[in-house]
Each structure stands twice: as structure tokens, then as C-alpha cells.
Amino acid sequence: MENVATDENWKICFSQLAPGLVLFARQWTRSAADAEDVVQEAFVKFWRRNHDIGNRGLLYATVRSVALDLIRRDSRRARREATALSDADQSVLPAFDIEDDSQRALVAALDLLPGEQREVLVMKIWNELTFAEIAEAVGISQNTAASRYRYALAALKKTLPST
Amino acid sequence: MNDFSELEDQLRKLRPATPSPELFRRIERALTSQETSTSSAGVLPRGKQSRFNWISLGLGLAAAAALVLLAIVRLQQPPKKVPSVASLSPAPAVSTAQLVPAGLTQVVYHTRDEGLRFPNNSSQPMRRVRSQAQETLRWRNPKTGATLRISYPREEISLTPVSGQ
Hints:
heterodimer; A: 163 residues; mainly alpha; Rna Polymerase Sigma Factor, Chain: A; Arc Repressor Mutant, subunit A; 2 domains; globular; B: 165 residues; alpha+beta; 3 helices; 4 strands
């Protein structure tokens, strides 16, 4: 798909990717507004450089890089967010349309996962990336990506014994 | 991954929240504008765009450091006259099947008169002239006609006694 900023192509691509991208970014930003800022900057940067939209590993790597840059550039805000998180305000991470109590419990269990496992899980489940793409986005090997995915599922299963 | 298939199904039923319509409008504005910034109302500083410049700067500094080191080595050697082409005698045991020296060229591209100096606290003033040149050594295989050239920069400082008048 050709990257032409003046036509409607980006809207088609972005409408499909946006929920997963914002969910992915929210792991680091802890708020929807910041996550959307990160996704905006990353997607615009990605699109302007005429990268192949099929290169999802690079797209998610861009989102990850922008999110981490944001944290580094604004350490005071990061500290405030960490403080807010420590105050047990877990409802903002990650952001889902929750329909029942079982899903609420699942989201709560997701919040307890280590970040490195959660980001792999988010890319795999809600963004449907392959382990090769995840490995490229995170900068790890495919085996490590697969291991983190399995560890995440095992941890969730342990937290949710009825599963 | 069969052990987790039920859990994976539950996870996939969770739907990520839909981003705000404002996000689409902001991206549209950013993509259609000619500006390089992302119109995020100052929330996000601009991304890094100077990676290539840093690489160029690093390469430039490395090249400059190499030249400086080469110049220092040259300065620590005793002054010597620039050999002429005729002075480059071939090695005694060179056979015709090997490369033999074929010539040396020296192109002086910068000369600077640094004025009078009194080296080593001597009373005899000397004029110091710094010259920079590019030297090229050339070897040739007389049998095959193959040539080998090596070029390198050279910096030379000459001290010429000045007679007081």
C-alpha cells in the first residue's frame, strides 16, 4: 500500500490499527490522552517516512520509541504517573471496553503482569503481530518473545484459577 | 499453546477502547500540513531527527583524529628530505615478478609561514614554515603492468635560520 498522505489510505490503515496502537502505547503513558499523543507522533513519523505499512514490527517499534522518549523527556511527569499508579489507580491500564465481571478480573490480572510480558501479550493478542514482528519491535529474539508470551499466559492462568 | 487456548480466547474477547475521533483529526492535520512538527499542542516535544548528523559528526571527528595522530607521528620523526623519484631505489632482491617502486609524487596544498621562533631558547632566530602535502607512492609490476598506489597526508615543519641584519 502506497503511503500517500494526501489521500485516504492512511485513514483505512489507521482505523484498523488505532485501537491496538493506543492500547500498546498506554502501557507506558498510563493515560489515554498521552497514549494518543504518542500514537499520533509515531504514526505521522512512520507515514511521512514512507515506510511500508505492512512492516508492523517497525511501526510498533516507532510507537515504543516515541513512548519511551516521552518518559525520558518528562521524568517529572513519569514520576507523577508512577505515584498515581502506586495509589492503586489501576483502572487506566490497559484500556478495554469491559462488559462483565470476568473481563474486569482479566483486566486486573493483566495489570499485574510485568511490563516486558504485558507488551508482548498486547502485541500478540490485540495487534496480532507474529513473534518475528514482536521481536523486531522490542529488539529481542523471537524465542524470547515467545517465552515472554508464554510466561504472561501462565501468570494470567495462575491469577485466574477458574480459567 | 493448547494449554492456553481458552485463555487466549477470553483475552481476544476483550476489546480495546476506541480512540477518540480527535486523534484522527489531529493526524490528518499533521499529515496534510507541510510542517515537520506534529501539532500536538506542545504536549510532545519534537522527535529526534538528527541521527544522521551525529553519525557524520562522529565520522568527521574520527577522520580528524586520525590525521592529527599521523601528523604527530610525522613531527616526532627527524626531518628528512623529500625523496625524489630517482632516489627510490628498488629493493635489492626484487624479482621482475614483483612490484617495484615506480615513483613518488608530492602535492603541497597548503603552506603557512608561522614567523620567527627561537627554538630551544637559542639566540638564533629561525623562521618556521608549516606545509601540508599529499604524497603518493606508486609501485608497478613490470611483467603484468599492475600498479599499486598508496596516498597519505603529510605535514612538515621546516626551520630556516634567519641572519640578523
